Amino acid sequence: MRLSKSVACALGVALVAVPAIASIKAMTLKELMSVTTEVVDVRILSKDSVKLDWPMEGAVYTRLSVEGTSLRTQEPVKTEVFFLGSHDPADQFGTSEMPTLQDTRVGSQAVIFFGKDQDIPGRHNVAYGLHCIYRVEEAFGAPVVIGKGEGFAFTENLKLDDVRTQVRAAHLELQAEQAGK
Asked: E strands within 14-145?
């Protein structure tokens, strides 16, 4: 029994020492906007998990029902957004790249980047992991988007009004680049 615990410990240490194969790609705001079709400031109305069996059998996604405003166009938005993984222990399907439980609380406000995934059954709006959902908290009497550090679209905490301005400017810049091609 003692030998098997030692072997398990040694294997655990060896696995930690091996460099990670998968990693989250660093993206600026403009880069993230170029690979997603929408950026919204929303309230999360409901949350559940669904089995979609894509990209592998048994894959579980979290579905967020959201309502708010497009930060690209300022139009109202009411839709569902999916991300791979689930916080529900019964699903037993989590991923290291999925947004945090705190970022996806029902009733909370968030800034979400998403796009239509042409390959996923049903062509759902998909938030591509940790990069795409930023929670909004009240701080000093103003809504603040909680930054996620270096390599993310919002590296530091920013007032929501500043995020709106940055997203709109990046949107117009991307449109101008598309028109110039």
From this structure: 38-51, 60-70, 76-84, 109-116, 125-126, 133-139, 142-145
